[in-house]
Amino acid sequence: MSPPEPRLPAVLLAGGLARRMGGGDKCLVPLAGRPLLAHVIQAIRPQVDDLLLNANGDPARFAAFGLPVRADPLPGFPGPLAGVLAGMRWAAERGAGHVLSLPADTPFFPPDLAGQLAAAISPDHPVACAASGDREHPVIAVWSVALAPMLEEQLLAGKRRVGAFARLAGRRLVVWPAAPLDPFFNVNTPDDLALAVGRLDPT
To answer: Are 119 and 130 in contact (CB under 8 A)?
Structure first.
């Protein structure tokens, strides 16, 4: 197996409603004095060729990050798979054959994430998903952009589960250790935010 591209484009998925954080843009919540999204960008930018932010509503609120912003291509907040579809279309426009999808609330990505996932792609496995320990993280994945028509068809049929689509498409798992710290820890609640602060400054 070999990487589909030396450097991948990536889409950061921030299109959700963040109900467990009280609504609004979870990725803009302050973490150690900076927006959570700034930590996510810092962790992944050295690994990828370019970044897209998938977010709904007025894109001007993200202007400070200097990223292109695209909304879900389908109405009704159909979930992260719609953001993956937006990323696939954007990557294809750039001439890329694959795109890395990432949640915008996961600030501790491992430094070999993009390379390891890209290396797991093959003709029989056009999707490579991250896992840690015994837990799969299907939103953290490299996808062939050729899957876009199939993905749109699934979304229009009301099938929105990321893991189910990844398995349908033929995913391969790439596993990272979950101890001592899970690299795919994500911030869903105020308690998670407090844990993330402690992880950034353990003193």
So the answer is: no
Closest CA to 103 of 49, 62, 166, 54: 54
DSSP summary character for residue 170: T
User: Do residues 192 and 186 touch, judged by C-beta distance below 8 A?
Assistant: yes
Average pLDDT of each block of 10 consecutive residues along the chain (203 residues)? Answer: 63 71 74 93 95 94 96 91 97 96 95 96 97 95 98 96 97 95 89 84 59
Please report whether residue 27 resides in a domain: yes
**40 lies in which domain range?**
8-200
Does residue 3 fall inside a structural domain?
no
Domain-embedded: residue 29: yes
CA distances (Å), origin 137, targets 75, 133, 140, 162: 25, 11, 6, 9
The pairing of strands 127-132 and 135-144 is antiparallel
Structure tokens at 175: 């596993």
Closest CA to 71 of 88, 55, 94, 47: 55
The tally of domains found in the chain comes to 1
Full-model pTM = 0.91
Are 121 and 144 in contact, with CB atoms under 8 Å apart? yes
Specify whether the CB–CB gap between 47 and 114 falls below 8 A: yes
